[in-house]
Amino acid sequence: MECLRKLGRMTAGVELVASWRIKGSMWLLVAPEPAPDVPYWPGRRGFAGLDAVAWPVAWAMLVTQLPTSTGVVGPLLAAIALVAGFGRVRRAVWQNHRYRFTTWRWGCIVAAMLLVGLVLKSMVV
């Protein structure tokens, strides 16, 4: 038990959830600390609601516009995207301090990939 207390002191910001022994090996479950609240600014709730609706609708439209027949899987994926959108809208509007913008997250990744592609293309030409 003493080593668990030492482990708890060493892992600042991480909570030890459970530990147990199975046939001589020890298993630890560790839960990360929740992300801090995001700062609020005027208009954030509206933009968050728009962001929360736009992504599931875009995924549903993408699935329904596939050139091949998806059978039952296509409408199922569209329905799952729209149901997930309800949870996103709830978090964006009523728990705005916990909502992270999907557009900003993936926009940064896409912009970085475009920048790398532009640099590679400029080196080839």
- Average pLDDT figure: 83
Count of the domains: 2
List the strand order in the largest sheet. Answer: 1-2
Overall shape: it is: extended
Short overview:
The protein has about 120 residues and is an alpha+beta fold. Helix content is about 60%, strand content about 15%.
Protein described:
There is one protein chain. The protein is α+β, with helices and mostly antiparallel strands and 125 residues long. It has 2 domains: 2-32, no CATH class; 44-124. It is 60% helix and 14% strand. The chain contains 4 helices and 2 strands; from the N terminus they run αββααα. The chain has a two-stranded antiparallel sheet with strand order 1-2. The longest helix has 23 residues, at 102-124. It is extended.
Layout: helices, strands, pairs:
Layout: H1 2-10, E1 14-22, E2 25-32, H2 44-64, H3 73-94, H4 102-124
Antiparallel strand pairs: 1-2
Essential attributes:
2 domains; two-stranded antiparallel sheet; 60% helix; alpha+beta
